[in-house]
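Q: what sequence does this backbone want?
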């Protein structure tokens, strides 16, 4: 690993520490270095507050003159809720800027790099670029498409079962895996389930971390006829918002009751089923960058069949359940040939207690 890569790696670690709290902004880390000495470091903490470069340069103070700043994302060059970072870098007399990845946002998109070069500053691009791109994969996808980056999370026995034949599913995985799922929720803008999951499990879908409540994602329910019980825990919006996507063939009495409780009810059209593409478009318009699907077999199948899933996180518990009637994680019709199976790429795995967690992407 080169010297530039070592310092960029530190900037990436600073950015990672803010996972879940910067949306709709990206996670960004920065370090200021001179003569191989760390002078300042910082991360963007939340939207509307100073960017990572500003924190790092403030810490460096007058010593920033003639330094190198390493930043995971191209510095902005526009006035938004905060002033442009490029001008702060120029003002502080930074000699060299090392950037992990460009910013596809139309307000930035190369303008920051151009401004720095115009000011006579040496700019190095693409250092640990893949790591920086993965750091903000949801942000980049949303900026390109206007839709959220979708992660499918499953938890199964070794034979692929998600519940017994009578619906009992507590618990397939161990405490360590379930704790990590709460960390994942903390990092997501929204969680999606179907009405069947709400009826069967009555989940809250909030975030509970060891040190207390984390950031609660928006709870999204796909419910074509508004079968969600009025007493469902997920309708309690004291901690998190709940949005129900339905069709025009909905229960009007329930719609009024849900709305009175503060729940948003959104129709995607005539149906008979909720239009998932429209759901994702609406979520993107509402500023949802990342969406984790925690549904049952039918929702999971619909998301995969519609090519809506980008990333899969699959927990495997060292158990066998068996039984033809026990549901598996993916429902729907089976393809006729193994060659038609969906394959994951860039696969990695971790162990949580006795469980194995496999992560992969559905595009190269």
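A:
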């Amino acid at each position: 690993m080169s010297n530039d890569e070592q310092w960029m790696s530190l900037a990436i670690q600073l950015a990672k520490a803010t996972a879940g709290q910067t949306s709709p902004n990206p996670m960004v880390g920065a370090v200021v270095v001179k003569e191989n000495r760390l002078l300042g470091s910082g991360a963007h903490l939340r939207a509307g507050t100073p960017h990572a470069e500003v924190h790092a340069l403030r810490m460096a103070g007058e010593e920033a003159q003639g330094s190198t700043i390493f930043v995971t994302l191209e510095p902005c060059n526009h006035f938004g809720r905060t002033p442009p970072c490029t001008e702060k870098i120029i003002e502080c007399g930074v000699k060299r800027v090392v950037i992990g990845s460009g910013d596809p946002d139309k307000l930035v998109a190369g303008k920051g790099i151009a401004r720095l070069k115009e000011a006579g500053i040496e700019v190095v691009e693409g250092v640990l670029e893949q790591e920086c791109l993965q750091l903000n994969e949801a942000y980049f996808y949303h900026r390109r498409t206007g839709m959220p980056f979708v992660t499918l999370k499953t938890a199964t026995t070794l034979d692929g079962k998600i519940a017994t034949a009578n619906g009992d599913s507590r618990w397939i995985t161990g405490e360590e895996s379930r704790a990590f799922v709460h960390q994942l929720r903390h990092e997501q803008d929204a969680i999606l389930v179907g009405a069947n999951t709400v009826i069967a499990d009555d989940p809250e879908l909030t975030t509970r971390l060891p040190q207390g409540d984390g950031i609660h994602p928006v709870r999204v329910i796909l419910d074509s006829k508004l079968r969600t019980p009025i007493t469902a825990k997920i309708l309690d919006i004291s901690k998190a918002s709940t949005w129900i996507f339905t069709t025009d063939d909905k229960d009007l009495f329930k719609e009024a009751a849900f709305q009175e409780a503060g729940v948003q009810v959104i129709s995607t059209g005539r149906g008979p089923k909720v239009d998932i593409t429209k759901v994702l478009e609406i979520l993107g318009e509402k500023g949802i960058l990342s969406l984790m699907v925690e549904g049952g077999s039918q929702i999971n199948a619909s998301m995969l069949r519609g090519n809506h899933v980008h990333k899969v996180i699959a927990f495997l518990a060292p158990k066998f359940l068996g039984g033809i009637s026990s549901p598996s994680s993916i429902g729907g019709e089976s393809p006729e040939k193994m060659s038609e199976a969906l394959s994951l790429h860039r696969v990695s795995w971790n162990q949580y207690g006795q469980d194995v967690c496999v992560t992969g992407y559905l595009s190269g």
